[in-house]
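Annotators were shown the component list below and the corresponding predicted structure, then asked to write short factual statements about the assembly.
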Amino acid sequence: MRAVFWKELADYFGSWRFFILIFLICLVTLYATWAAAEAILDDVTDAPTESVFIRIFTTGGTVPSFLEFIAFFGPFIGILFGFDAINSERNRGTLSRLLSQPLFRDSVINGKFLAGLSTIAIMLAAIIVSVCGLGLATIGISPSSEEITRILLFYIMSVLYVGFWLGLGILFSVLFKRAIVSVLVPFGLWILFVVFMTMIAGVVADTMEPVDRYSEAEEVAHHEDIEDNTVLISPVHLFKEAAGIVLDPERRTVHGLTGARMEVDQRYLPDLLSPVSLRQSVVLVWPHIITLMGLTVICFGISYVRFMREEIRST
Amino acid sequence: MGQPVVEIAELTKIYNGTTVVNKLTLQIEEGEIFGFLGPNGAGKTTTILMLLGLTEPTYGEVRVKGFNSTREPLHVKRMTGYLPENVGFYDDLTARENLRYITRLNRIPDKEATERIGRALESVGLSDVAEKDVSKFSKGMRQRLGIADVLVKEPKLVILDEPTSGIDPAGVNKILDMIVDMSRKRGITVLLSSHMLHQVQKVCDRVGIIVNGSLVAQGTIEGLGKEIIAQGENLLEIQVDELNSRLIDSLGSITGVITVEPSGDMLTIRSDRDVTAEVSRVIVRCGSLPLHMRSKDYALEEIYMNYFQEGCPA
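Structure shown to annotators:
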């Protein structure tokens, strides 16, 4: 498996795809960071003095915030890295040559997935570090140790999130023989989750709990609940919500996947206006992280089984 | 002959109700070049894939050097080199890098791998383009690189699936020479599948003919030819400078000759044994001269066509 891993890693880093992606993403995110820094500096007078640095990731100025860019572009990276993992080998005629070597078949798919994940991890690390650097230079406030931990947590979640899309890309590369199909289907899903999910959630909520302006407050709240929970089916929103909580100590509510509104334990919150502790943030997003992991494992698991069972046919 | 390298017993593969390979039983001895012949879609590639454990047989068994291909594929793959039809390489890597990947997958230590890659590239005549991207290679060069790719593993058995398809005649000869070389100098057993009979005829020690998934004949080429001759007859075509009825009568009286048919200045003699020598003697005695004589012996093509027609009732 090591041979496959290193070869794939070298392939990723040498590919045009990688250079174009990293160039685009650096451009976009650094611009977002600069805009955020400007915005933070503008209202620094009446903003809270705590956790200023970390807001570089969540503040949107004239452009969306860094967090939103990752939520939006993460799938793009994952899919582009994964969509032709297996079917390109098949189409080039290298798959049968590769599989006739003395290696277990799962080494091929594991090696490819891990190489893709490592590439993503390195790429995201580079981007986040440069964002931090730019932040330091423009705002001039250094992050506290808690903020660094939050950023690290955010990093791990981002890798997981992009990893999910990588798994999805690989899944379709196993399922479909033609690269054009295996790239279009996950992109379709991406658009579905990014653009249409809020609409779908709205429809679902309207059907289950119709509200009008004479509705009781409780009914409206229930309607909102349904909408907020439905939207979490989409990994994009799942990631956005979780990352938002980790990065923003001011946020303290979250919609649990079970449908119950989870509140921060009041005992830990003597003052409602004080920021949420790191530990509480983690407790809040734990289900999100587990769900993201689960989705990734499911995607990868299906591709794994399909690939293992697939028979190599002539032609 | 030593112990058989490949043992195939009652091998059957059914894809969605269609029998692709039907109770194939075959043995390949150590060091021989075995030609696996048959028309397209006869089940050659499927048999090869089962041999490598890439496809599971519906029933039956394949053993390579005693290892079961289905249950112990890693052992089989370790000592088998496989060159698939339409072999592919990583276009953005050089020839050397492509081979390097294979040696890594085979866990050959880097130092030894470098030597092996050098030797393999040299033996297929690709040393001077070793550092070039494979994307610039012609079909013939790719095929030769494929052979190098098989050689770096230093296998006991080499399986070549249609190694000569789509290659110009000079390239075909080069490849066939390499195959013979591989077998004679390195003692590698070679299984070679093809539908190009006349090409394979030159190099194979033994052939097996597969039609519609069944092995219809196997043996040496001469052996297969004799088998047909035994049930058929000899044909002799002669051109003489002077054709007369006396000559035809005399030829007809040779023992074994069945008919003598003149057409223009040509004679076609059907006989149940080889009568070439007597025929020429009679022609000369009759005051004529044989200008051209051709014994229509059964070439592999005819052997193949013969079995092919038998195998396909349609």
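Statements collected:
1. The first strand of chain A starts at residue 253 and ends at 255.
2. Chain A touches chain B at residues 3-4, 6-7, 11, 14, 89, 92-104, 311-315 (CB under 8 Å).
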